[in-house]
Amino acid sequence: MYACHGVDPELSALQVSDRRALLDRHGVGDQLGAFMIGPDLMATGEPAGALSGTRFAVKDLFDVAGTRTGAGSPDWLAEASPARSNAPAVAALLAAGADLWGKTVTDELAFSLSGTNVHYGTPDNPAAAGRIPGGSSSGSASAVAGGVVDLALGTDTGGSIRVPASYCGIFGLRPTHSRIDTTGIVPLATSFDTVGLLAADGNRLAAGWRALSAGAESIRPDRASRSLARLVLATDLIELADEECAGALVAAVNGLARDLDLEVVSARLAPPGELARWLGSFRRCQMVEAWAAHGEWITRRQPDFGPGIAERFALAATTDPDEALASEPVRGEVGLALKRVLGADGVLVQPATSGPAPLVLIGSAVKQDLRMRTLLLTAPAGLARAPVVVMPLARWHGLPLGVAFVGLPGDDDALVDLSARADGHVAASAGLPI
User: Fold this and answer.
1) Cα 421 from Cα 237, distance rounded (Å)
2) Are 377 and 402 in contact (CB under 8 A)?
3) Is the pLDDT of residue 27 over 50?
4) Which of 72, 107, 343, 355 pairs as cysteine with 112 (C-beta 3.0–4.6 A)?
5) Whole-angstrom Cα distance, residue 88 to residue 34?
């Protein structure tokens, strides 16, 4: 059994006590351990907006006027001043009529995919008891999956929306890089950071996206969204999933294709051996950018990071910036590979994660192996600056398995429309293990 919302075993009894005290001060009815502030009304949306009556939460990387942004780190929170204004993404949803109901737990400085935080605990996974919610947008995913809010803002650098969406059985959107303004958000790696959404269903994801892309000073794509008619099963990425999970994913995609009258084809995204090289390039670039964003503060403050976060920033400190420059051409390679495979009307289909959410109480070596396997799946879209929608289409022994749909940069609207069309299929198959 696990205690205190599935707290990581590295979390001390004193830290558990501190977390409960924190929730007593700032949270009202946070049964999931998902919130840093809330769930309670923090700001009211504009009356009669398109999202009027919608509740949303924001990951504690986003500035909310009058509150301090903690970024999952007590040391960061201690030095933070109350924000003078809302981040543009937060302001966009408020302007569309949505009500803000809290700030959610995140992994420290967003540098993790597990959703475990040694300082604030692990938010519950409502879809898979005793299992991690995924990170770093852990609290946002937990709050949506638990029905506390309708939408939640998150960020995705290396999978921080895609992974929790998959593990918690909800919809998630990582948009085209730079499509949504990242002002007022604590960065991790700026050439990969994106602002995205988590939602319980495709229609709410679409409504949230329309509001976010219309009002957050978004950069318009340089071309119209393509019409998507073919689902291209990425066989090399599907091979990275656990064997039984891969079968469940393919069966779920074929079922969706029948319902939506879409063609299913298969193709390899990368030549043999290239996925590992792509991941190496992604990691070098991410490490260099993460140290550029936070190295000076870490050196001065010497923050009390959890072991995994500390190890990654230690690696970031020693990564040669020239290695990242040498890796830049790989972005173009991945982008060209994606264009070649998708053609005029295709969307790449792949596992969002290698399997269902693992148990909270797993060892650090297992957790590191899982991280690397996950990044093999998530890195290509990040390198290509491509948009991704994750849908809860498949299940394995009752546990959610997210399916990721990857478009070309600028295909955000088409992917979100596809998620809305998939709503009926998801609802019809909900709760039926494959």
Assistant:
1) 25
2) no
3) no
4) 107
5) 23
Catalytic residues: 59, 136, 160
Q: Which amino acid is at 130?
A: G
Neighbours of 141 (CB within 10 A): 35
- pLDDT (mean) for 364-390: 94
Which range among 18-32, 106-120, 156-170 shows the weakest confidence by mean pLDDT?
18-32
pLDDT in tens, 206-235: 999 999 999 876 667 766 778 999 999 999
What's the residue count for the chain?
A: 434
Please state, in angstroms and rounded to a whole number, the distance separating the CA atoms of residues 98 and 119: 30
Whether residue 400 is preceded by a cis peptide bond, meaning omega within 30 degrees of 0, is no
Pair 105, 146: CB distance under 8 Å = no
Any alpha helices (H) in 180-242, and if so which ranges?
202-215, 235-238
65, amino acid identity: A
3-state helix, strand, coil in the chain (%, to 5): 40, 15, 40
Closest to 207 in 3D by CA, of 351, 34, 45: 45
Rg over alpha carbons for the chain, rounded to the nearest Å, is 20
Rounded mean pLDDT, 123-130 = 97
Neighbours of 320 (CB within 10 A): 11
- The mean-pLDDT minimum among 149-158, 208-217, 236-245, 406-415 falls in 208-217
Residue 76 backbone phi and psi in degrees, to 5 = -65, -45
Between CA 77 and CA 75 the distance in angstroms is 5
Q: Is the Cα torsion angle 247, 253, 256, 262 positive or negative in sign?
A: negative
Q: Which residues contact 237 (CB under 8 A, 6 or more apart)?
A: 269, 275, 350, 351, 377, 380
Work out the burial of residue 316: count CB atoms within 10 Å of its CB; fewer than 13 is exposed, 13-18 middle, 19 or more buried.
buried
Task: Identify the DSSP state of 13.
Answer: H
* pLDDT given at position 366: 84
Amino acid at 24: D
CA 381 → CA 304, 388, 405, distances in Å?
A: 32, 7, 10
Q: How far apart are CA 264 and CA 250, in angstroms?
A: 10
Torsion-angle region of 70 (φ positive above 0: left; ψ -120 to 50: alpha; else: beta)? alpha
Q: Can you read off the two tokens belonging to residue 268?
A: 């390899």
DSSP 233-249: EEHHHHTTS-HHHHHHH
What is the overall mean pLDDT for the chain? 91
Report which of 319, 287, 298, 311 is spatially closest to residue 73, judged by C-alpha positions.
Answer: 298
